[in-house]
Amino acid sequence: MGNGNAAARVIHDLRGLVARAQPGDRMPSVRELTARHHASPVTVTEAVRQLVAEGVVEARSGRGTFVAAVPVPERAPDLSWQTVALGPRPPGEEDMQALLALPPADAIPLSGGYLDPDLQPAAALGAALARAARQPASWQRGSAEGREDLRAWFARQAGGGLAARDMVICPGGQAALSSALRALTTAGDTLLVESPTYLGALATARAAGLRVVPVPADADGVRPDQLAAAFTRTGARLFYCQPLYANPTGATLATRRRAEVAAAVRAAGAFLIEDDYARDLTIDGEAPPPLAADDPDGHVIHLRSLTKSAAPGLRVAAIGARGPAGARLRAARLLDDFFVAGSLQQATLEFVTSPAWARHHRAVRTALRGRREALLAALRRHLPQLVPQAVPRGGLHLWARLPDGTDDVALAAAAANEGVVVFPGRPWYAAEPPAPHLRLTYAAAPPDLMDEAVRRLSRALDGQPASS
């Protein structure tokens, strides 16, 4: 007989013995079972291993095999007390969970904040990390601020307004932003933000107990006159801004407004957090320099992340500031997690200073241009009313204005039922949204799926109730 039949006989025999035995009783040895069933020791051992995996018997080293103890049924846990102990749930959690949720396998993603895996430099990053992992120094305790050579690279990227000593390496942009808000504010302070603005900034500010006040923005970025008025009215000392390819709108702060925004911040004696997350995602032309490059008196807190432009797993960012603000940021990061893993810092430095980084830039620029144009073409074909008036010159998203009266949250749910994932505009506003929008991401799906994605979105929109 074959080994399979022999194993089945051994398993059947042991099950019968277990049924008649008590927990803790000894089972026959492998030698006994081998002789009884005329099977090889290997076959018997595999049969016993299977029953051990099922929890029927248990093996005790050097003593043999025994009938497993019958588990005592546990009472259902009562966790209801936690609702009283924890109190109200922090605002914004649901929106952040939805933003980071993975799309179903059969859906076309027009949402998400990262590059499609096909556009990520996984091979180059993996090779760099493998080399870094073999270096003993990568596993030693490093400086709390991060490697000086990596900090120097980030400082150069900031345009020369900051030095390596001003920078702190962080495990991603979200961690850097959270540290900055805690270091520079106390609960009850006011944070000014562009309207709309990055959902993660809103959630982090609310979790820190800040009062969030929106400042109107348009296709040319935040409006300087409204920013100055908001500083005067609220007494705020901090403004969070994405001056380059803002998420979700894709707007870039116009050249003529840069000096006016800086003047408003200076006049208020305030700080501006410059979230430069998309500097490596330029599609058309060249990106303007960071605001930190022209900041002689230390008003700009510069934040630069590599996660969006490389891969979600590259949790490396830097935040920089001068003077006492910089000291407070360094202290906050030390309290949070001591330092970023040395191997990841080493791999990041190797990657961004190698020819692979420039090749990745070129490939991403070409790919994003193709995907953006494919999405725009599909919108013009099937949903021309959703084509944005201003097309962003970089970044990952289009900000699509919906017809008046459309429930953007309900539309996003209906689109998901049609097999296309989009994100509603409402959560990106700190106050009431002036109009319904969708954020449509062109980086997460290939060009040949854009037409079908918009077809599905069109069916979802057609099924929405007519506005009153």
From TrEMBL:
| Transcription in keyword set | yes
- Molecular function per GO: DNA binding; DNA-binding transcription factor activity; pyridoxal phosphate binding
Q: Where is the HTH gntR-type domain?
A: 4-70
Q: State the SUPFAM superfamilies in the record.
A: PLP-dependent transferases, Winged helix' DNA-binding domain
- Recite the UniProt keywords alphabetically: DNA-binding, Pyridoxal phosphate, Transcription, Transcription regulation
Q: Which PANTHER family match?
A: HTH-TYPE TRANSCRIPTIONAL REGULATORY PROTEIN GABR
Annotated protein name in UniProt? Transcriptional regulator, GntR family
